[in-house]
């Protein structure tokens, strides 16, 4: 009897996955390491019908058709824009080219998935927002995947019920000579605090080294400090967030682990833990299980890549409104980056 129930559950789970199919055609602009590692595997797993891959190199285009049977490689962006069967376009090219490519996709009225950063200024972002409204592109989503990370979603739900006090964020990486650290790296932690805590105001700012900053931000209901730095090492890079609330302390580490430590109670303002011994309690709200190699334990899932791509394709196919990173939604992030650049 038990074995029959187990078999039935496994069969239903498999059939549910197989029944989730997509009918529209899509194109992908770009073939870099990030795309190959984090985006293409998700498209393959979901079975997203990819008709084109567009690159700038003729040699790379020939190699793509050998590597991806059934996908047409092209160096002509116009071929994709003029193909009415293409409903959605994924863009993960060089950051400097994103604004131009995104503008053309939106003018074609196709839905757009654009990796971060979608553009290089708040003014360009507003232009993209206007283009989406003018040409009626149904979906335009930015690849700020941390909003879709399971740990972040759980943390946001918990914080919505808490009385917030302060937070402390550290984003510590190694040297970054190949690009703009603010737009290429720090856009992630800055967008994360905008998403979790609301519109920020910069109350303190100090540049301590090249591409290294100490910040204090004031949000509507919380104040936070941030250390953003490329003065450390990529071998042991760190991304951590500690949030202090009236009931306890939340710790988020690398999108891999989320814990909550409740505070000790007090009597007439005196902490009970000072009067008698207190055993620290740590509640593990989310951890990535490294033992079982299934989808939900994969870093592509825990970092949010899987959910962001699913949200985009589901919105294009089924008009499901579960997009967390629309162009309009990241204006606070770009306003913050603009303020930091001006300083």
Based on the model shown, name its key terms.
12 helices, 38% helix, alpha/beta, globular, six-stranded parallel sheet, 16 strands, eight-stranded mixed sheet, 343 residues
Polypeptide structure, described:
The radius of gyration is 22 Å and the shape is globular. With 343 residues, the chain is an alpha/beta fold. The strands form three sheets. Strands 8-9-10-7-11-12-13-16 form an eight-stranded mixed beta sheet, covered by helices on one side. The chain contains twelve helices and 16 strands. α5 (95-107) packs parallel to α6 and α9 (187-197) packs across α12 (331-342). The protein has helices at residues 2-19, 33-46, 58-67, 77-81, 95-107, 122-135, 150-159, 181-184, 187-197, 299-302, 305-318, 331-342; strands at residues 25-29, 50-54, 72-74, 86-91, 111-115, 140-143, 164-172, 201-209, 212-218, 223-229, 238-245, 248-253, 257-262, 266-267, 270-271, 283-287.
- Rounded mean pLDDT is 92
Strand content: 25-35%
Taken from the alpha-carbon principal axes, the silhouette is: globular
Distance between termini? 69 Å
Report the uncertain regions: none
What's this entry about, in short?
By secondary structure, this protein is α/β, with parallel strands linked by helices.
Q: What does the secondary structure layout of this molecule look like, with pairings?
A:
Elements: H1 2-19, E1 25-29, H2 33-46, E2 50-54, H3 58-67, E3 72-74, H4 77-81, E4 86-91, H5 95-107, E5 111-115, H6 122-135, E6 140-143, H7 150-159, E7 164-172, H8 181-184, H9 187-197, E8 201-209, E9 212-218, E10 223-229, E11 238-245, E12 248-253, E13 257-262, E14 266-267, E15 270-271, E16 283-287, H10 299-302, H11 305-318, H12 331-342
Parallel strand pairs: 1-2, 1-4, 2-3, 4-5, 5-6, 7-10
Antiparallel strand pairs: 7-11, 8-9, 9-10, 11-12, 12-13, 13-16, 14-15
Helix pairs in contact: 2-11, 5-6, 9-12
């Amino acid at each position: 009897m038990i074995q029959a129930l187990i078999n039935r559950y496994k069969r239903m789970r498999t059939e549910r996955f197989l029944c989730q199919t997509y009918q529209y055609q899509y194109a992908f602009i770009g073939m870099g390491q990030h795309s190959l590692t984090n985006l293409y595997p998700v498209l393959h797993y979901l079975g997203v019908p990819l008709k084109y891959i567009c690159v700038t190199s003729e040699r790379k285009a020939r190699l793509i058709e050998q590597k991806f049977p059934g996908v047409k490689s092209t160096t002509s962006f116009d071929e994709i824009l003029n193909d009415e069967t293409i409903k959605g376009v994924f863009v993960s090219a060089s950051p400097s080219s994103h604004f131009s490519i995104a503008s053309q996709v939106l003018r074609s009225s196709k839905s757009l998935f654009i990796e971060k950063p979608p553009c290089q200024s708040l003014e360009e972002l507003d232009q993209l927002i206007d283009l989406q409204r003018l040409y009626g592109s149904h979906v335009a989503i930015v690849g700020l995947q941390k909003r879709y990370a399971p740990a972040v979603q759980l943390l946001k739900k918990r914080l919505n019920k808490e009385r917030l006090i302060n937070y402390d964020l550290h984003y510590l990486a190694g040297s970054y000579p190949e690009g703009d650290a603010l737009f290429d790296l720090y856009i992630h932690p800055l967008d994360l605090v905008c998403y979790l805590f609301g519109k920020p105001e910069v109350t303190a700012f100090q540049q301590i080294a090249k591409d290294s900053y100490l910040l204090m931000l004031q949000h509507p209901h919380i104040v936070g400090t941030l250390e953003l730095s490329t003065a450390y090492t990529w071998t042991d890079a760190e991304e951590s967030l500690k949030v202090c609330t009236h009931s306890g302390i939340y710790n988020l580490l690398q999108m891999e682990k989320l814990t909550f430590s409740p505070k000790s109670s007090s009597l007439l303002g005196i902490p009970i833990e000072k009067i008698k011994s207190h055993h620290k309690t740590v509640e593990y709200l989310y951890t990535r299980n490294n033992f079982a190699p299934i989808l939900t334990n994969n870093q592509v899932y825990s970092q949010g890549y899987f959910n962001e791509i699913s949200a985009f394709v589901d919105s294009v196919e089924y008009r499901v409104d579960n997009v967390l990173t629309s162009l309009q939604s990241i204006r606070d992030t770009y306003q913050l980056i603009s303020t930091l650049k001006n300083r």
